[in-house]
Amino acid sequence: MKIDSEILGVVCDYIDLHHDDIIAMWKQFVDLRSDATEKEKADTMAELLKSELEAIGCECRLYDVGERNGYGLEAVLGGDNPKKPVMFTGHYDVVPLKGDHPFFIDEENKAHGLGCLDMKGGIVMAIWIAKALTAAGWKEHPIKFLLVGDEENGHQWGSTKEFLVSHSGGGVCAFNMETGLLNNSICIGRKGTGQAEITVRGVAAHSGNNYSDGRSAITEMVYKIPQIEALTDLQANTTVAVTMIQGGTVSNSIPPVCSCTVDLRFGSVAERDRVIAALEEICRKTMVEGTSTEFEFREFMAPFDSSEEVLRLADFVGSISEEYGFGNMGRVFLGGGSDASFVLLGGTPCICSMGVVGQFNHSDREYAVVDSMFERAKLLAAVILRISDFENIDKTPERRQGDV
Q1: What is residue 336's predicted lDDT score, i.e. its pLDDT?
Q2: Is the link from the previous residue into 287 a cis peptide, with omega within 30 of 0?
Q3: pLDDT of residue 259
Q4: What's the CA gap between 30 and 52, in Å, rounded?
Q5: How many Å apart are CA 43 and CA 208, to the nearest integer?
Q6: Residue ranges of the chain with pLDDT lower than 50?
Q7: Domains of the chain
Q8: Are strands 292-301 and 192-201 parallel, antiparallel or unpaired?
């Protein structure tokens, strides 16, 4: 189905006519600090988002996802429509950099400020897409927002992951409004992230007088570390790295304890399960008699494990981009985790990195290309106007030459 040129024109004109308003909202959001480590600040940002979304007609609800975690926000525009919603997802918290990092636009038309790229710019874009579609009279599907306030902490301590999975089902598609890439690629998969803490306990003894009575925890750990790092499989986008180690008590005693931290990156759910099972087996086996090993694993981000539906959605968005002059969009698998993983686990096909384009996340060099705010808004609006075409795509699996 071709888009009626009149309705697309109304959408694009609306976005252009509100250029200064969009920039003003972007500045307002960036200048309101919402550090992931400060719940009160994050909650203030959530309240602002709620008021902005209610102003465009959304039914909103804030969810308590933990005493240290910013609110989960669900907002639905057109909730009385029985069709599947189109979804925008993302996080409104920012990394807790020291100092002030206010919003400004430089002479190269690049926006700066903490969170301008990661990812308040993408949230601003999503809000104005919804506004533009509403102004044009489009009501074919509900539009749903799922926004969270503790992504930069890896959703530790609370129930944000469960919130995302339980509220992201039943959508026709989802756009995770994370950092857009300078090469214009669509993210179709990401590594999951986690951390293991391994502690070996041995028996202390004087290293001179009672050497034979001791059981060295360090020696046992030395046996285990090569086995741990051997679980890395670069072809499967999985890395297992021992990143910190400490052990012993004093210089003249057989060390009774040794611990290490293991950074884990998984290319898929299957890889995560393989690595965890193997780590548990390594910890069960003992090379130094009389030692024992404790294993604890924490998952921060689940793998964004691409599917046929994800690839179809990426292909569809790419075809719309080319058709309407927004350029070729490649496909990419990224190493860093994102909430696209939980949306996909909830049952809705999702693509990631659909927000404003830029680089240098998590640093005082962070910037976003201002023009990308308006180009991407028009692109995604065009995609949504054609979303019935995506629903009707032949679901037969096929090989894609552009897959990465």
Answers
A1: 83
A2: no
A3: 98
A4: 15
A5: 58
A6: 1, 399-404
A7: 5-190+304-391 (3.40.630.10), 192-301 (3.30.70.360)
A8: antiparallel
